[in-house]
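User: Predict the full complex structure for these chains.
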Amino acid sequence: MPELPEVESVRRGLEAQVVGKTIQEVQVYWDNIIESPKPVSQFKRRLLGQTIHQVKRRGKLLLFYLDQDVLISHLRMEGKYGLLDQDAPLTKHSHVIFNFRDGTQLRYEDVRKFGRMSLVEKGKEAQHKSLAQLGPEPTFEDLTLEWMLTFLAHKTRAIKSILLDQKLLVGVGNIYADEILFQARIQPDRPGGSLTNEEVEALRQAAIKILQEATLRGGSTVRSYKNSLGQAGTYQDFHQVYGKEGDPCPRCHQPIKKIKLNGRGTHFCPHCQQ
DNA sequence: AACCTGACCTGTAAGC
DNA sequence: TGCTTACAGGTCAGGT
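Assistant: Here is the predicted structure of the three-chain assembly.
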């Protein structure tokens, strides 16, 4: 579910909630969520006694920095964290529980069970396969026009699909891909390599601006997203095309169209995105 | 290498 | 009211 703005909002909540807490016990109710180490008993044992010192983010990944290890966590479509007292009743979607020495617990809940966690030795997290291939963060310093032009050269696949893989830049998912392409006035099915330099620069500006603005608003809540404090985002109130099929385009008033592109619902204005 | 299609899961809403 | 189908903020293994 969450894209960069939502994950960053979760990160900020978690930073305020769990930094300084020491893990006393771990429970796992759905083994497939734990990627490594295997078996899950190892994952649990290694966490015992470690204190959370920092919560960072890279793309859509959350990174919990502990004494010896880094817990890498991806929420995928429906993952959520929450801090509760240890006597609060579990729900049917509570899959991983971190009990702390102070009597509270961090809970990972995930209706679809798509989320994944890995525990890696501190210092080796950048080499982990979930991190090693990631593109730059969407900032003016990291995401340069030169990089984007090089990356996109000769690419034949649709620009929307390129935005969704995390190599050109990190953090974009299905909502923000549509919003960014609308802002940049680029049709989602244009081959990546066919964009002009001006269009690539427009894409760069749109990506940085929209992801920053959405982060400022705590992300978008379309169905179920909440941060670790239980708060919804408000950026959905500013969506121009996502979820707006049939509505008039905010620029030209022609109806917004929804198509399926590479298996993903895709919203755009056929009139002003060429 | 580059690209596309299922598979992973469950819940909700729409269609009949 | 039921039953069936499509769809959902993501990624990856496997195939062409």
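Residues 32, 76-78, 93, 110-114, 155-157, 161, 223-224, 262-263 of chain A lie near DNA strand B (CB under 10 Å from a C1').
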